[in-house]
Amino acid sequence: MSSKLKDFQFNQQSLQLNYEQGKLELTVLTPGIVHVFQDHGRARNSYAIEGNKQQKTKVNVFDKGDHVELETAQLLIKAYDDEKLDVYDSLGNPLIIDYRGSRQPLASDLDAEHRKTVLAEGHSVADELHHESHYYEVVKTLAADEQFYGLGDKTGFLNKRGYDYDNWNSDVPQVHTEATTKLYKSIPVVYGLKNGHPYGMFFDNTYQSHFDLGKESEHYYFYSAIDGNLDYYILGGHSLKEVVANYTYLTGRVPMPQKWMLGYQQSRWGYSISQERVEELAEKFEEYELPIDVVHLDIDYMHGYRDFTWDTKKYQHPKEFVEQMRKRGIRLMPILDAGVKADPDYDLYQEGLEQGYFVKNPDGTVYVNAVWPGKSVFPDFGRPEVRAWWAKHVKFFTDLGTCGIWNDMNEPASFNGPLPENLEFHDEEQISDHRRMHNVYGHNMSKAAYEGLKAETGRRPYVITRACYAGTQKYSTVWTGDNQSLWSHLQLSIPQLTNLGLSGFAFAGTDIGGFQADATGELLIRWLESALFVPLFRNHAALGTRYQEPWAFDKQTLNIYRKYLNLRYRLIPFLYDQFRHETQAGLPVMRPLVLNYDHDPQARSINDEYMVGTSILVAPVVTPQTTKRLVYLPAGEWIDFWNHASYAGRQTIVVDAPIDKLPLFIKANTILPWGCKTMHVSDKPDQIMTFRVYGECGSYMHYQDNGLDFAYQDGEYNEYYVEVDENGQALVELTKHGYGPNYQKIYVETADQRLEFNYDEKSGNYRQK
Ligand code: MIG
Fold first, then answer.
1. Is the N end or the C end of the chain the one with fewer CB atoms within 10 Å?
2. Which domains are present in the chain?
C-alpha cells in the first residue's frame, strides 16, 4: 500500500512530513547532522546523547511537487511518498538512498522438522526477529562500490560489507570468529563510502537490532529493530574524518585520561588469590627491569565475590598493601561485577533490597539469577537513585587508594540462562523492561562508577567496562572481553580496535597475549608489538591457562618484551598528545588507514595495518613463523623508524620483520616527542623532553599538564611549539604557560645533530645552547 505525502510544516529547523499513514520528522542539528524520527509510542530519551546538540543552522526547504527538499550546507534530503528519503551531499552525490524494492530474505530450505534436528545437534538457526509486533526495518540501496565501517565492537574485517551483525550485549566466551554476530557491546553507528563519498548513520535505539550490510543482497543493506521508535541520525561531512567528528560531537568524546593510564598493565585471573602473589609479581617486574604502572585484581580479592568487599583473610591490611604497592610504582585496579550476592548478611544486598534498587520480576518480587557469588540480584542502573547509590559505594575503593574500577559481567551476564525479557527495569524514572534496558546496562553501571570516582577523588576516573552502548566513551574505556591466545584473535584485534575508534571509543584495548587458551612466546611478542600504540595496554590471562608474564617463556622473549615496554614508555608523551588533540577534535588515536586516506581505494580494506594520528603507520606481524611482510604505504613519503630508510608512498613494499621487529613507519617531515626512559609514569613533572625529527623539517604542538585531575580545564596546562626548517634551524617556544612546572631542558634531534634548549626564567622561554 502506498502512503502519500499530504503536506508538511517547517519550523525550528524541523520538517514535519505528514503522510496518509503517519508522520516523519526531520530535524537539523548542524549542517552535517539531521535527526530522523518517527514515534512508535516508545520513550524518546537517549542514553547516547546528552544535552542539546542543536546549533542554529541555515536550512532551506523547497516544495518540488513530487517531493520536498531539505537542504543544509552539507546535506540535501529529498522526501517522497511512502516515507522514502534520499540523501545527497552538497555536490549532489548520492549518499543514502531508500531502497524501492522489497527485501528478498535469503532462501532457506529448513522446514520445521529439519529445524528441530539442526537445533538438536547444537547448530544455531538465525533468529526470526520480524515476528515481533513492533519490528521495523530501514532498507537502503547498495552500490557496487560501497564499503562499511564502524559498528562498535564487532568481529570480522575492517570493511563490514557482506556481513550481518546483531546488537544485543552478550557474554561470548567462545572463540570470536567472523561468524560471531554479537559481542559485549552495542554501538549502532555505521559509516559508508558510497562511490568514495562518506556518510554515516547512527541508530539510537537500545532494543535488540540487526545490521545486514550486503550479506542478504548485493542491491541493498538494512538495519532492523525488534522494537523502539524509528530514531536515527544522518551524518555528513566532506571527509570520513568529518563524518566521524560529527558522530562524536553527537555522542560525546573521550575525556583526557590520567597519564599513567597509558602505561603498561599486567593482569591475570588468579593473581589476587593472595597478597603475596601480587607482591611477588611486583618483585619480578623490578628484578627483570620491566616498566609497569598497573596490576589488575580479578575477582579473588573480594570476600566471597561480594562487590565492594575485600577478603581480609588473604589481605590483612588492604589499605597498607595498596600503599606499599603504590610506593613501588604500581597502582591496583580492582574488578567489580554487576551481580550482587543475594546474602541476607551482606549490607549492600540489604540496602538495595530495602530501597527496592534491584531488578524485579513482573510480579514485583526481586529477580534472582546466579553469577560468581552464587545467587545474585541485579542493580537497576537505569534509575538515577540506583546510580547515585552505587557511586556512593565507590568510596570503598577510593578510601583504600585503588586506582579505578574495572566493570565486568555487565551485559548483564548470568549463569542460569539469560535474564527474561519481561523483567522490570527502570528507564530513568519510568518503569520499563529488560528488552529496552539490556543494551544500556553496562553504560549506566559505568556512568555510576565514573561519577563515584570523580566525586571522591577529583581525578580523571579510570573506568574499564566490558559491556556498553553508544556514548559510553564519555565515562569509560573498554576492553574487548574474552579473546583467546590464537593468531586469529591477534588478527581480529586490529579491525576490532580501529572500528571501535571510529565508533567513538578512542580508549580501548584487547587482552594482550589472549585471555583464554595457551599463549606461546612468539604469539605474545607479536601481540605486544602489535599493541605498541593501543591505548589500553594490558596483558591479561585466564585462570588455568599457561602463564603469560614477560618472563614466562625464554630469555629472548623477555628481552624483546622489555624492549617494547621501554619503547612504549618513550612514546607515552606522544600518545598523551594524541588524546589531547585528537579526541578534542573527536577523532580516534588508533585509526584504520581509510580514515586518513578515504580517497585511496587501496586504503579501504586493510586489516593488518593501522595508523596513530596522521603520522605513524604500524604494520605488525600477525601470523606465526613470519619474518617478512608486505606493507602498503599510502600517499606521501615514509621513513622506516628503525633504519631511517625512506620510501615513496602509494606502493606495497616488502619489509624484513624478524621476531624482534615491529615494522613501523613515520611520515616524512614529522616531529615526535620522545619521553625519558622510565619504569613508571612519574607523578612528578618531567624535567626533560626530547623531540625527534623524521625527515628534514616539521612542526609539532606538544601538551603538558599534571596528568591527574581536572585543573587543565581551568587552563593549567602548557603548550610547546617546536619547529625545524629545511636548513636545520630549530625553534622551541612555550606558547602557553598555564601549568607551573615546565621542562628545564628540551632537546631537538635531527638526522645529524642534537640541539639543546634551556629554559630561561627571565624571558619565560627557551634559549638554544
Ligand atoms: O567469566 O573475573 O572477561 O576478563 O578475568 C569470567 C574473571 C569472568 C570475565 C572477564 C575476564 C575476567 C573473568 N571474567
1. N
2. 259-336+383-416+437-574 (3.20.20.80), 591-667 (2.60.40.1180), 684-768 (2.60.40.1180)
Residue 516 is given by DSSP the state: B
CA distances from 757 to 361, 711, 722 (A): 68, 28, 11
Sequence letter at residue 272? S
Residue 272 in 3-state DSSP?
helix
Looking at the predicted structure, is the pLDDT value of residue 121 above 80? no
- In this structure, the residues whose C-beta lies within 6 A of any atom of ligand 1 are 269, 298-299, 335, 408, 466, 481-482, 515, 540
Q: What is the pLDDT of residue 130?
A: 52
Q: What is the mean pLDDT of residues 545-557?
A: 98
Rounded distance from Cα 455 to ligand 1 centre (Å): 27
Q: Give pLDDT, residue 17.
A: 98
Peptide bond into 412 cis (omega under 30): yes
Pairwise CA distance, residues 13 & 30, whole Å:
10
Question: What's the 3-state SS for 178-204?
Answer: CCCCCCCEECCEEEEEECCEEEEEEEC
C-beta pairs of 108-113 under 8 Å, 24+ apart in sequence? none
Q: What is the pTM of this model?
A: 0.97
Ligand 1 centre to CA of 264 (Å) is: 19
Q: What is the pLDDT of residues 205-262, one digit of tens each?
A: 999 999 999 999 999 999 999 999 999 999 999 999 999 999 999 999 999 999 999 9
Which of 409, 411, 466, 478 should be mutated for ligand 1, with most atoms under 8 A from CB?
Answer: 409
From 171, 298, 483, mutation site for ligand 1 pocket: most ligand atoms within 8 A of C-beta: 298
Contacts 24+ apart (CB under 8 A), 411-414: 411/169, 411/170, 411/171, 411/184, 411/438, 411/441, 411/442, 411/466, 411/467, 412/338, 412/339, 412/378, 412/438, 412/441, 412/442, 412/467, 413/171, 413/338, 413/371, 414/339, 414/369, 414/370, 414/371, 414/376
Give residue 124's pLDDT: 64
pLDDT exceeds cutoff 90 at 129: no
DSSP 439: G
* pLDDT band, very low/low/confident/very high, at 551 (cuts 50, 70, 90): very high
Q: How confident is the model at residue 542 (pLDDT cuts 50, 70, 90)?
A: very high
**Span from the CA of 297 to the centroid of ligand 1 (angstroms):** 11
Query: Probe ligand 1: pick from 153, 265, 335, 543, max atoms within 8 Å of CB?
Result: 335
The residues annotated with a catalytic role in the active site are: 408, 411, 482
- Whether the pLDDT of residue 563 is over 60: the answer is yes
Q: For residues 190 and 213, is the Cβ–Cβ distance under 8 A?
A: yes
Give 482 Cα–ligand 1 centroid separation in angstroms. Answer: 7
pLDDT digits (tens, 9 = 90+) for 14-46: 999 999 989 999 999 999 999 999 999 999 999
